[in-house]
């Protein structure tokens, strides 16, 4: 399975509170942090692809390591000082640890910060969770936009299953698929090679019928369709 990238958003809120502060000139404040994912339209969605979030706070906190296991992994604390922390997000289904650096400051009542995380060779159960947030996986992404569908002469090919099958191929097989597409595409074929993010996009419905059949046969020989 190709690597999958997602954008994590941290939402921090803070406000002064009427409690005595141990440090003169620095009023006590309550603060909170919540963790979300951004979908492909920039909307907040639950970060259900993580099984827990561990906040590593300043050593002066009595509980300077706090773990939360339910989205949005909200932490609520109070104090008088700003500090840098790390937040370790653990991916579900053995999705690995992802460490984010976060600056807790009191410049605004609410502020947001985004971080990109990469899931390396995620397991199918994790991929299913990641697909809930939309976006593309690295490698070959088969577009199957219903509004762009056209009638194919080859009824033996299920385009949705082909798109799903392409996502299951390993890196070497994906490279072979990209070569097949480049060598056999038509003038109507839509492709996009995003070198910076290591992604190759293709609209399967713009491929010649013969190429679609070849892709189907090759993918079927490598994975279950």
From TrEMBL:
Superkingdom, natural source: Eukaryota
UniProt domain YEATS: residue ranges: 1-133
GO BP field: regulation of DNA-templated transcription
Gene3D superfamilies: 1.20.1270.220, YEATS domain (2.60.40.1970)
Protein's UniProt keywords contain Disulfide bond: no
Alphabetical list of Pfam families matching this protein: BET (PF17035), YEATS (PF03366)
GO CC terms of this entry: chromatin; nucleus
Compartmental location: Nucleus
PROSITE patterns linked to this entry: YEATS
Keyword Zinc: no
Keywords (A to Z) from UniProt: Nucleus
Main subcellular location: nucleus
PANTHER family named among the record's database cross-references: YEATS DOMAIN
Protein name: Transcription initiation factor TFIID subunit 14
């Amino acid at each position: 399975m190709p690597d999958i990238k997602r954008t994590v958003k941290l939402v921090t809120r803070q406000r002064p509170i009427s409690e005595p502060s141990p440090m003169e000139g620095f009023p006590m404040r309550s603060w909170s942090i919540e963790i979300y994912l951004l979908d492909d339209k920039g909307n907040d969605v639950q970060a259900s692809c993580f099984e827990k979030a561990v906040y590593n706070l300043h050593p002066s906190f009595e509980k300077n390591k706090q773990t939360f296991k339910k989205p949005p992994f909200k932490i609520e604390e109070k104090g008088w000082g700003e500090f840098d922390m790390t937040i370790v997000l653990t991916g579900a289904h053995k999705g690995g640890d992802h460490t984010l650096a976060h600056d807790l400051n009191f410049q605004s009542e609410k502020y947001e910060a985004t971080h990109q995380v990469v899931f390396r060779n995620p397991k199918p159960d994790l991929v299913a969770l990641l697909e809930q947030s939309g976006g593309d996986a690295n490698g070959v992404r088969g577009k199957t936009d219903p509004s762009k569908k056209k009638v194919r002469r080859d009824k033996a090919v299920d385009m949705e299953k082909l798109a799903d099958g392409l996502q299951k191929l390993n890196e070497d097989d994906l490279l072979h698929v990209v070569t097949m597409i480049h060598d056999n595409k038509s003038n109507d074929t839509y492709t996009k090679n995003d070198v910076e993010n290591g992604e190759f996009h293709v609209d399967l419905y713009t491929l010649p019928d013969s190429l679609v059949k070849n892709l189907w046969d090759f993918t079927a020989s490598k994975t279950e369709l």
